Each structure stands twice: as structure tokens, then as C-alpha cells.
Input
Amino acid sequence: MTALVFYDFAVTFSTEVSEIWSSKFTGAQALFFSTRYSYILYTVLYSVMNFALNPSETVR
Output
């Protein structure tokens, strides 16, 4: 799932810059940025927490 999130981010980033970042700031942009970047942040933190766990503690 993490790879899919970052793949989507990489593929759509150029369009995001040209369409979203270059226009006047609106409520729709605030909603877009909050949903897009909060999910990316969640994915990064979730992945870090999963990789930080010791596998011998999770398997019983």
C-alpha cells in the first residue's frame, strides 16, 4: 500500500504543481492539501512504526 501511495504522489505531482499551486488559494485547495498530505504523512509514520518494531516481539 505504501508503494502505491508514493507512486500516485510521484505520478500526479507535476499536475498538482501546475494546476493547484499556481492558482489563487481557496478553501478547495486547503481541503486538497490537508487530505493529500495528511495521508502521505500518515503512511510514512505508519511505515516507520511497522519497521521499527522488532519482528521477534510481534511473532508468537
